[in-house]
Specification:
Number of strands: 8
Order of helices and strands: HEEEEEEEE
Radius of gyration: 21 Å
Number of helices: 1
Shape: elongated
Largest sheet: 8 strands, antiparallel
Helix content: 10-25%
Oligomer: single chain
Number of domains: 1
Structural class: alpha+beta
């Protein structure tokens, strides 16, 4: 019995440590959602103040239409209100906010709160693509949750 007691204690400690890891992973987990163009939108928290964003967008061009994937890295997030904005050199701008209460009202993000599980925003693409000319997405809204 004395030899089994340390094994029971170690097992109990390991079982109680799992929820702390799960909270940490869910805090940094990806936001997954869709756009008003019915395309996928994924946003990952790189740090507490930086995001990585990936989404598909459809654009009407001078010569046809395109369906492209945009990847935007190191998007700075304002830690006070959870708002972010970044424009790429190619002509894609994304803006949004992290932190909404259950009624949908914007709230400041706080660590490990449920309000941090929703994000909303919009983007606009205006890109020159070879063989297509100037391509424009128009104003596209998105919503994502973790």
């Amino acid at each position: 019995m004395r030899k089994a007691l340390p094994l029971i204690i170690v097992t109990a400690l390991a079982a109680t440590a799992v929820p702390a890891v799960a909270v940490h992973e869910s805090h940094h987990g990806p936001f997954i959602g869709t756009t008003t163009q019915d395309q996928r939108f994924v946003m990952r928290t790189v740090t507490h103040t930086r995001l990585g964003i990936r989404f598909r967008w459809r654009g009407d061009c001078e010569h046809g239409t395109v369906l492209r994937i945009a990847r935007i890295r190191n998007v700075p997030v304002n830690p006070d209100d959870g708002r972010f904005f970044k424009r790429t050199r190619s002509g894609i701008g994304v803006r949004g906010k992290i932190g909404f209460d259950p009624q949908g009202n914007p709230v400041p993000p706080e660590p490990f709160k449920f309000s941090n599980n929703e994000a909303r925003g919009r983007f606009r693409a205006r890109v020159v693509i070879p063989d297509h000319g100037m391509c424009r997405s128009g104003l596209v809204f998105w919503e994502a949750r973790r």
